[in-house]
Write a structure and sequence with these properties.
α2 packs antiparallel against α8. The chain is mainly α. It folds into two domains: 112 residues, no CATH class; 163 residues, no CATH class. Belongs to the peptidase M48 family. This is M56 family metallopeptidase. Keywords: Hydrolase, Membrane, Metal-binding, Metalloprotease, Protease, Transmembrane, Transmembrane helix, Zinc.
Length: 304
């Protein structure tokens, strides 16, 4: 019962920390560090929630979760009497069901994203063209503003003809640097678990706010990478131009340069950059993330 109580408390701590993190603004000063913390909180919450249910259900075996579950399977195979009441049986079913949901949903979301990208790449092969002025970028003949990337083994950056006319050369360079950062750092993989969790818990405001926070941090991380190669004010003016021109929505499975809900926060951060988070603070947050990430698996492995 001690393991179940500890895991339940750990899951609650992660939920409260995630709720507080949705309101935090220090994350804007160190978006990559904050993304790692978000990933650690999400992973730990899932493992701790499942572990609390399984630890309670398997407590009669006095062998912990992993060894207790192995003992449970052996007893089922050999027809031994199960030391269960209905409450523990319900906890076992709930824990296994939650495990199945949290494993299958990201896999299903990933498969759906891959299919959407494959269809979009096929469409681009028919309608997009190469432009000598922007080598390595696919250009679509469309008057509206659009700029996005399709990550993957064969990543592509796509812009519309309207974007070429909308942005100056310096602004276009900043936008392309932003998209290159998305591709290089595989931000699509960062967002995938949060999108899957949103599907699992569509009614949860906390999950919705967490996904929005991580999406904003991903854009800020790409902005930081782009500002190393270009003037941050050019990226800020490009974002404003996209916002004023009613930029097209980003296709499914792609990462765009401009999300209307986050433009002003990003512009303000680009034109008035805050002092970055001190190295000691970043190290402390990384240490907390590591401790969180290994705590739940250790509690799963420890014998009763």
């Amino acid at each position: 019962m001690i393991a179940a109580a500890v895991l339940a408390a750990l899951a609650m701590i992660c939920a409260v920390a995630a709720w507080r993190l949705t309101f935090a603004r220090w994350t804007w000063r160190a978006p990559r560090t904050a993304i790692l913390l978000w990933q650690s909180l999400g992973l730990t919450w899932g493992l701790a929630s499942i572990g609390a249910l399984l630890a309670f259900a398997l407590d009669p075996y006095r062998k912990g979760i992993v060894h207790g579950f192995a003992e449970f399977l052996l007893s089922v195979e050999f027809g031994a009497r199960q030391p269960y009441d209905y409450l523990r049986l319900a906890a076992l079913i709930a824990g296994l069901a939650l495990l199945a949901v949290l494993v299958t949903l990201p896999l299903a979301a990933g498969a759906q994203t891959l299919r959407a990208r494959r269809r979009h790449r096929l469409l681009l092969s028919l309608v997009a063209r190469d432009e000598p002025a922007v080598p390595g970028v696919r250009v679509v003949d469309f008057p509206g503003a659009a700029a996005y990337c399709l990550p993957g083994l064969k990543s592509e950056v796509v812009i519309s003809d309207g974007t070429l006319h909308l942005l100056s050369s310096a602004e276009l360079e900043a936008v392309l640097a932003h998209e290159a950062a998305h591709v290089r750092e595989r931000h699509d993989l960062v967002l995938l678990p949060f999108a899957a969790l949103r599907r699992a818990l569509p009614w949860s405001r906390l999950v919705r706010d967490a996904q929005a926070s991580v999406e904003l941090l991903v854009e800020m991380a790409a902005d930081d990478r782009a500002r190393q190669r270009c003037c941050p004010r050019r990226l800020a003016t490009a974002l404003l131009r996209f916002g004023a021109s009613a930029a097209l929505p980003t296709p499914q499975g792609a990462l765009g340069v401009s999300a209307p809900s986050s433009v002003m926060a990003r512009v303000d951060r680009l034109v008035r950059p805050e002092v970055t988070l001190p190295a000691a603070h970043r190290f402390l947050i990384l240490a907390i993330s590591v401790v969180l990430a290994i705590s739940a698996p250790l509690l799963w492995l420890l014998p009763g």
